[in-house]
Amino acid sequence: MKQLPFKQVDVFTSRPFYGNPVAVVIGAEGLDTAAMQRIAGWTNLSETTFLLPPTQPAASYKLRIFTPRRELPFAGHPTVGSAHAALESGFAKSVNGKLKQECGAGVLDLTVEDSCIYVRAPEPKVRSVEAPLFGKAQALRVDVGPIWVVVDLGKAQAVDELDPDMPAIEEMSNALHATGVTVFGRTGNPAMPIHVRSFAPAHGVPEDPVCGSGNVSVGAFLRQTGLLKEFGASYTARQGMQVGRDGRVQVRVRADAIEIGGEAVTCIDGKLRVD
Length: 275
Fold this sequence. Notes:
The protein is of the alpha+beta class. The protein has helices spanning 33-43, 76-89, 156-161, 166-175, 212-225, and strands at 2-11, 20-26, 48-52, 61-66, 71-72, 98-103, 106-113, 116-120, 125-128, 139-143, 147-155, 180-186, 194-200, 205-208, 234-239, 247-253, 258-262, 264-274. The chain has two domains: 2-120 and 262-274, Diaminopimelate Epimerase, Chain A, domain 1 (Roll); 125-256, Diaminopimelate Epimerase, Chain A, domain 1. A hairpin with a 4-residue loop joins strand 4 and strand 5 (71-72).
């Protein structure tokens, strides 16, 4: 029976068990798609990734990303966590603090800055939608690979107190061909001005603890609606308190790009037995 290096990395935190975990299988070129999906269902995390040699000349490595139910072209916290695992294991090396990740969304630029890893997200595709489940709150459908219905709930208290109707969110997500729903509100704290929650029951993830692509989508919402001036082009979002976490996502929004980043810490370092 073959063994592959395996790490479980907590993302958007420097403290184990306070961020969003991603399982990373290193050197997974011997696994086919069905095996990868089976492993992702077994780990039962929001995402499991597989580090592979690159097929594009400019890339540092290739990454495949799976939820418990399906493959994704891009996801934020798996990208940051997998880059951390690739660097820590020696599977890839940064060049002048830069990495390039080949994935379903193309070849993405990553930057290592002090203790944080940033990724330049795919350019969002944004359109208005109706979200009657959330009353009159403004909603946009934002496609960054994962597709989020982003809803502005106003104040962080409304985000904190939200008791999500998971079957209704799943129904709305399917109707809008979306991964799920991301809501946000204002905290009143300049150090962490936005509180975010993300729900993807249609993908087997009732609440994602700290969601990178969801935070990219909030940044796209703010840019699209002109609300970014409330927070500035660089801000920190908090996420995860309702599920016992305390994640911090660094968001940088420009006219031509959105970057998200954060810290990561390895919680499990071992071997995965595969057929």
